[in-house]
Structure formats: structure tokens, C-alpha cells
Design a protein that fits this description.
single chain, alpha/beta, FAD/NAD(P)-binding domain, 2 domains, six-stranded mixed β-sheet, four-stranded parallel β-sheet
Length: about 425
């Protein structure tokens, strides 16, 4: 039994499918979501279908794999059953790859005002708010003669890879992709502010790469504020310490929380809610239960926690499958050892950083490597071709092909509010001139 169709779950399923076993994979969605490229959907560079693939289609060649769409709500480890919202399923071995979600550090009310970026739905909502900010500014000038509007200002909270990628892409949109599309406003005057609570952006990377990333962001017109802890998120503004920062649209990229299914296992957890796993990726007292990916907490040889990256989850999925194979052959299990092939983060057009062993790369070379690696990790040949074509077109023309504002509420007076996280009227008010307190 595999819970979760992300990188870890799919790699476990692919490896286990070659064994003489029956496999059931359960996920709330019917598709695998390529999270590293969600920001491209959020910034109108790609469409959702280009970074997602139906799980059934991915695993259709394996006759011993059953895919179920369902909501896992808990586990009965003694009876070896996975509990669903509408029933339960027995298992002999269990691989939990439930992933992670946003963390607002105890301020869950901020989520309505500052959406994160973990799902396709999140990406579409971020895209809606970003594009709507420009549309409403244009509307205010044309229909309401608001010629003294403050420039649109995006505030991104969190200087990790997601925050850096969002900031770079938003700069490209404002300064290139839509600069000629509007007649009454000047998108190139848009202000983009990246707020990081620590002393530098990309703190997980070596300091020289972090500083290089900050310089590249500055070249793109992004204002970086480090040592700036957000203490409140409010409509139209963000509070940093005792002062306020005006914000037309606020985006959250500051925290990650483990899936609540980790607690349902009853295993020991770390301070962040990740499940403490044994070196073979099983949990204490239940060798038949494996936890992998973002939900697992395991340290490498140097004592550092393994990062929540796709390569870690993929390798752990395959390793859990190998240990199950060893059990079936009555062989001793092996310890998981992560093979770090490098880490990289893109910043913008021909701007990126990469760490491959002792080699530190920046600029165009790092960006090109980033493109190649992410194309290879995409699930499905069709998706790889489509994304490659979209990136080539965007590089040549600066255009963003997926600039669609979707949702039940598009413009005031044209549709009624129906459950959007932030009403369009509120966003429209935020676009207008506001004063920092």
C-alpha cells in the first residue's frame, strides 16, 4: 500500500511493480503534480496540464498496480489497515509519502491574505491575484480616473527557492511580458519586494551562491529585505516589526509543515511534525511501515537533516521498495544513503545558481542546467516537449502563454462572489493608493 502519488510514491510504485506483489496507490488527486514548476503556473508561464500527469496514465503499464482516488484520514497499525474517509483497506507493507503543506507558524488566518504554493489550485489562485492586480489598476484609471495610483506592489514572504523564483518571474512579467498590453498604467513601474527573516536569501545554499542570487535579483529590479521578520499580514499591507509595508498582493513562501498524516501514525515526530524514521526508512515498532519524502525526518552522515527535495523523495521511494524486496528474499535491509547530485534554483531569465559537489555555478550556465534537469524530471514525454516549446517561445518573445484569470469572481459587477479566499473588491481597494501606517 502506498499513500501519496508524489515523487516518493510514484518511484516506490515503479520499483515495487517489478516484484511479484499487488500494489495499491491512494491519493486525494488523480494526478501527479510537478511541484518544482508550480511557480511557472503561478506566473502564467505554463498551464497546469503541462506540469501534471494522471497517476493512472503514469502507472498503466503495470498490471499489478491499482490506483485509488481517496482521502486517507488515519491508520490502524495493529490491524494493518489504512483508514479512508469512507472505509478502510488492509495492507502487508505500507509506504507513506504524504508530503508537506504550508506553515504559517500558528497564524492560519494569514492564508486567506497570502496564499502559498503547494498545489495546482494554489498556483491558479496566485496567478489570478497577480494578473487581476494589473487589470484592476487599469480599470481604476479608465473608469474611475484614479490617476494617482501607487504602483502595484507585490510582497513575497520567504527567501527560499520558491520565494526567489516567484520574485524573478514576477519581475519578468511586469517589465517584459505585459509591458505593451496596457494603455493606462505602466506595469514596468511595479514594485516587487522579497522579505526574508534571516540574514540572506536561499539560506540552505553556500553563502557565495546566496549572495550571487541576491545580486541577480537586484539586476531584475527586485528589492530584497533580509533580517525582516513578518509579524502580521493584513489586507493591503504586511507588518514587519513595528512598521507596515504596503502590499497590493502578498504571497507566502516562508514555511513548510509536514502532512498531518504523520501524527496519525503515532510515531515519534520532530519539532516540525516530521516522522522520525529508522535508517532503513521504517518507523519504530512497525518495520512494515515506511515513511519517505517530505514527511520523513532523517539525517545524513554529517548529521544534517535531509532536505525536502524531489531527488530525496525519489531515492527514498526506490530504497523502500528495495527493502521490501529484501524482506521477501529473507535478506537484511539496507540503510538509506542519499546521493546528492546537486541543488539548483532559478532566479529569472538566464539567471540561476547551482551547487554540484564542490562546483558552484551562477548565471546562464546554471540556468541552462536547471532547464535540462527539470525537463528530465517531468513525468511524461508529452509534458517535456510542451514545456520545452513554451520555454523556447518565452525566451525568444518574452511572452507568457497562460495569462488566464480564472475563478468564480473575475471583475466587480460581472459576477457574484462565490467563496474566493479574498474578494475582488478587497483586492481592487488594495490596488488603489493606500498609506502605510
Amino acid at each position: 500500500m502506498i499513500v501519496g502519488g508524489g515523487f516518493g510514491g510514484l518511484n516506490a510504485a515503479n520499483a515495487l511493480a517489478k516484484l511479484p506483489v499487488e500494489i495499491t496507490l491512494i491519493d486525494r488527486k488523480n494526478y501527479h503534480n510537478f511541484q518544482p514548476l508550480l511557480y511557472q503556473v503561478a506566473t502564467a508561464g505554463l498551464s497546469p496540464g503541462e506540469i501534471a500527469a494522471p497517476i493512472r496514465g503514469v502507472l498503466k503499464k503495470y498490471r499489478n498496480v491499482e490506483v485509488l482516488m481517496g482521502e486517507v484520514v488515519g491508520f490502524d497499525l495493529d490491524k494493518r489497515r489504512v483508514l479512508l474517509s469512507d472505509g478502510s483497506i488492509p495492507y502487508d507493507y505500507l509506504v507513506v509519502a504524504a508530503g508537506a503543506t504550508h506553515s504559517y507558524f500558528g497564524h492560519e488566518d494569514w492564508q486567506k491574505l497570502a496564499p502559498g504554493l503547494k498545489t495546482i489550485e494554489d498556483a491558479i489562485e496566485v496567478r489570478r491575484r497577480v494578473l487581476l492586480a494589473f487589470e484592476l489598476a487599469e480599470r481604476s484609471v479608465v473608469l474611475e480616473h484614479e490617476h494617482d495610483l501607487d504602483p502595484i506592489q507585490f510582497v513575497i514572504v520567504g527567501g527560499g527557492p520558491t520565494g526567489v523564483e516567484l520574485a524573478g518571474m514576477l519581475s519578468e512579467i511586469a517589465r517584459h511580458a505585459i509591458v505593451r498590453d496596457f494603455r493606462s498604467i505602466k506595469p514596468q513601474q511595479t514594485s516587487i519586494i522579497l522579505v526574508e527573516g534571516g540574514p540572506r536569501v536561499l539560506p540552505a545554499y553556500p553563502e557565495d551562491l546566496s549572495r550571487s542570487a541576491e545580486r541577480q535579483l537586484h539586476k531584475l529590479g527586485v528589492e530584497v529585505r533580509t533580517n525582516s521578520m513578518v509579524t502580521s499580514v493584513e489586507p493591503g499591507r504586511v507588518k514587519i516589526g513595528d512598521s507596515y509595508l504596503r502590499s497590493t498582493v502578498t504571497l507566502w513562501a516562508a514555511g513548510v509543515a509536514a502532512s498531518p498524516l504523520g501524527r496519525a501514525l503515532g510515531a515519534p515526530l520532530d519539532k516540525s511534525g516530521h516522522v522520525l524514521v529508522n535508517p532503513d526508512l521504517s518507523i519504530s515498532g512497525h518495520p512494515e511501515v515506511f515513511v519517505i519524502g517530505d514527511l520523513a525526518s532523517l539525517r545524513d552522515k554529517s548529521g544534517e537533516l535531509l532536505p525536502g527535495l524531489a531527488p530525496v523523495a525519489m531515492q527514498q521511494g526506490r530504497h523502500a521498495a528495495r527493502n521490501i524486496s529484501r524482506d521477501l528474499k529473507h535478506q537484511p535491509r539496507g540503510k538509506f544513503e542519499y546521493l546528492d547530485k546537486g541543488t539548483m534554483a532559478t532566479i529569472g531569465r538566464a539567471a540561476a545558481i547551482a551547487k554540484i559537489g564542490r562546483l558552484h555555478l551562477t548565471g546562464f550556465i546554471a540556468w541552462f542546467l536547471w532547464l535540462f534537469v527539470h525537463l528530465m524530471y517531468l513525468v511524461g514525454f508529452r509534458n517535456r516537449v510542451l514545456v520545452l516549446l513554451e520555454w523556447a517561445w518565452a525566451y525568444i518573445t518574452y511572452q507568457r502563454s497562460a495569462r488566464l484569470i480564472t475563478g468564480s469572481e473575475v471583475l466587480p459587477g460581472l459576477s457574484e462572489p462565490r467563496g474566493q479566499t479574498v474578494s475582488t473588491s478587497t483586492l481592487q481597494a488594495d490596488v488603489k493608493k493606500t498609506k502605510a501606517s
